Amino acid sequence: METQDNEKQEYNITVYTENQIGLLNRIAIIFTRRKINIDSLNTSPSEIESIHRFNIVITESEEVVRKLTRQIEKQVEVLKVYYHTNADVIWQELALYKVSTDVIAEKVSVERLLRENGARVVVLRKDYTVFETTGHREETDNLISILQPYGLIEFVRSARVAIIKDSDGFNSKLREFERLEPGEDVVENEYLNKGQKVFTM
Amino acid sequence: MEIAQQEVLVPAAKAQAVKLSGSEALLEALIVEGVDTIFGYPGGAIMPIYDALYDYNDKLNHILVRHEQGGIHAGQGYARTSGKVGVVFATSGPGATNLVTGLADAQIDSTPLVCITGQVFAHLLGTDAFQETDVINITTPVTKWNYQVTDATEIPEVLAKAFYIAKSGRPGPVLIDITKNAQIQKFDFEGYVKCNHIRSYRPKPIVRPQYIQQAAELINQAKKPFIIWGQGVILGSAEQEFKAFVEKSGIPAAWTVLGAGAIPTDHPLNVGMLGMHGNYGPNVLTNECDVLIAIGMRFDDRVTGRLDKYAKQAKVVHLDIDPAEIDKNVKSTVPVWGDCKETLPLLTALVEEKQHTEWLAKFNDYTRQEVEQVIEKELNPTTDEMTMGEVIKQLNEITKGEAVIVTDVGQHQMVACRYAQFNNTRSNVTSGGLGTMGFALPAAIGAKFGAQHRTVVAIIGDGGFQMTCQELGTIMQSGVDVKIIILNNRFLGMVRQWQELFNERRYSFVDIQSPDFVALAAAYRIPGKVIDDRKDLPSALNQMLTNKGSFLLEVMVTKENNVFPMVPQGCSVSEIRLK
Prior knowledge:
The complex is a heterodimer of chains A (201) and B (579).
Chain A: E1 9-18, H1 23-32, E2 40-45, E3 51-60, H2 62-73, E4 78-85, E5 89-100, H3 101-107, H4 110-117, E6 120-124, E7 128-135, H5 137-147, E8 152-157, E9 161-164, H6 171-178, H7 195-198
Chain B: E1 18-21, H1 22-32, E2 37-40, H2 47-53, E3 61-64, H3 68-82, E4 86-90, H4 94-97, H5 100-108, E5 113-119, H6 135-139, E6 145-149, H7 155-167, E7 173-179, H8 180-184, E8 186-189, H9 209-221, E9 225-229, H10 232-235, H11 239-249, E10 253-255, E11 270-273, H12 280-286, E12 291-295, H13 301-304, E13 315-320, E14 334-337, H14 340-350, H15 357-379, H16 388-399, E15 404-407, H17 411-419, E16 428-429, H18 440-450, E17 456-461, H19 462-465, H20 472-478, E18 483-488, H21 493-502, H22 517-523, E19 528-531, H23 537-546, E20 551-556
Parallel strand pairs in B: 2-3, 2-4, 4-5, 5-7, 6-7, 9-10, 9-12, 10-11, 12-13, 13-14, 15-16, 15-17, 17-18, 18-20, 19-20
Antiparallel strand pairs in B: 1-8
């Protein structure tokens, strides 16, 4: 194993599954069995009818992540699993902030706050206001620290959703799955076309 | 695994729906799937299925066990000797929880099973009803697939999926939990169609010719190639293809415990057993070969010892049907994905016909050393007390290697696997991955039902026998013919061996007392005998084997004997100890 394989970093695991009761548990225990903490988990219907997409974020070495993805893909109701580093995905998290309308109206330049943090108002009522912002962890965290002094009442953040930069979507892959005779699956073999490297005994 | 043909059961010779209950639909499904034997234990939540079974008595043979754990181990034994799917019935709650050990055992040893559990009425789910447990969540980590049926109309399709998943690809246990209302509910049954495709499920990876070519190139260039094979060869019914590959390539081949018997023990290229208590040569030479060809095995830690000192000098060719096994423990140079029944002939076609005479002689040198230092005194002891090894040797002489040997877990298991002669495949039934004490007696019952024309001998230690000895009742009631040998060393021998070697002989709770096993068997109307003198051994074994029906033979063996060779935990395979 090369050393880079053993460095821990954030990995985004993308899982395409059938919409089946109990599958979340089947996937979760693959992590818990190895005492790996899931940093973030999002599951929702994909663009394809009846197929769900999971986005799972964990901090681990590539070697561990590669083995995990194979264990996940082994599950009967899982169609396909990919893993990517943060550099290979575009991702967002959504956050909601509830503050007292009185305090905000009196003490904060709301317009500037919204502009500088890319936030928007979701609800504006007499007693409270709800802001929303999307972005990376540090961006959503930043607005927390700005609003804390003004009595942030409630805060919630979603799991990460990620788009893979280098992907041509799942539709063509799915057609392969629906054929009775499965098509060729691309598997990385680092030794392909490297005859010399392998065959020097 | 063959792909099932689309089969439609036409009820009552008319292609129109008939009204069946969920239970009847379930039994119809079992018949179409070719099930002949069910191991089970009734209870409240599965009563409708048992009520329907009353009318199917001529088509389905149900064996009433004494404990659900016995039922599932019997299902495993049946699957292992017959190559078919084992079927087990249990009720909800404690019935279902008693299956967990067997499910875990079948999951890790890739045994095809379909377990049907009863469940409380759907409207009671989650209310902590009488005999309700969350079986689906309890069994998720130890099943290949599981599903809860709450409506009778689901039954045909779910059963078809269950059998397909259990036996295709890398086999494994499947559990179907059926609520009582679904068992009772009547619906329009339109026949049963076997399943041969599930969108999200890939039982076999695509075979890639370029990998086969690369593997063949490596093998053809190798000076010291070494084959290690596991149960995958047997599960894939690839024994013939494997033999052809070994014989053409002329490469020495060694086996994992579960791979035993895929080629006969006395085959000239069969160089012995791998792993912690395996043979001397195969372990040492693993760290000397230049190309290691692993077929249908998963590099279990009991085989590899210390991984960072395992076969580091070798290029590794790994043939496996389960992509998750490739590079899991040992990095492969060429991964040959696929069913070895397909990949082996392709590989055989490309490898050159060779004889590795000098290399093979090396294995034989090590064998000679092992015979001198270990095997001779185990098989032909000069002490007064009998050894486990000589019992196996005598058994070989009488059965001529034709018997099915079922073993429990411990010293007797390692001795039996090391010394038993196997002329046929599907003959070594043992709990490999999980190491389940109490496995042998019920598994032997199932093994006999799976291979009725063969002699089935269960070899069990005094500890393991006491874990599931209630299954003597199953033998009594079903009349099954199982030969039982208890190798009694009056200790939990394997733990005692470790305590002797690694814990300064601090024998902590391994001194186990036993009842009078022969009297216990007699209580179940099973004849038996106990011997502690070597001269009685051949006649006692003959008496056991010629007895019409089951027989229990208890053999008193040396109290403190150790199984050697041994690769101690945390050591490399080349650090194998002979004493």
